[in-house]
Amino acid sequence: MPTTSASIKAIQLTRAVFESVHGNLGLLKFNVEELIPTNGSNGQESQKWDITCSFFETLGSTAPSRYKVSVNLIDNTITIKKLGGESETPPKTFKVTPTDTDETK
User: Fold this and answer.
1) Short-list 103, 77, 76, CA closest to 92
2) For residue 65, what are the β-bridge partners?
3) Greatest CA separation found in the chain?
4) Strand, helix or coil at 95?
5) Contact indicator for 33, 54 with CB cutoff of 8 Å
6) pLDDT for 48-71, tens place per residue?
């Protein structure tokens, strides 16, 4: 059974956090704009990623909201900062606890 790459895991973890906050309808047209590894060397895949993503938060949204997300796969923490807009909000950090997945069954 092939293992999932760290970059895909980082995207999946990011999407899971946004779904828990906004609900799955709030993630219409989820789009990864940029995916940058922030560690890893000598052929080792990075376990930390910076992701810029956007999505429509509600059915009535006229434009997508953009976010900068820092993902740490080592301890499953995600720091989210909303980009743009007039009201800058401080970054929020989430710790994701593992659940039963196909890989752990």
Assistant:
1) 77
2) 55
3) 47
4) strand
5) yes
6) 999 999 998 877 888 888 999 999
Question: Residue 81: is it exposed, middle or buried by C-beta count within 10 angstroms (0-12/13-18/19+)?
Answer: middle
Under the phi-then-psi rule, with left for phi > 0, alpha for psi from -120 to 50, and beta for the rest, what region is 76?
A: left
Q: How many CB atoms lie within 10 A of CB 17?
A: 19
Which residues on neighbouring strands pair with residue 80, listed in sequence order? 69, 92
78 three-class SS: strand
Which residue is it, tokens 């760290």? 6
pTM of the model: 0.81
Contact 88, 72 (CB under 8 A): no
Continuous H helices in 2-103: 6-22
> Which H or E run includes 56?
strand 48-56
Q: Count other C-beta atoms under 10 Å from residue 18's C-beta.
A: 23
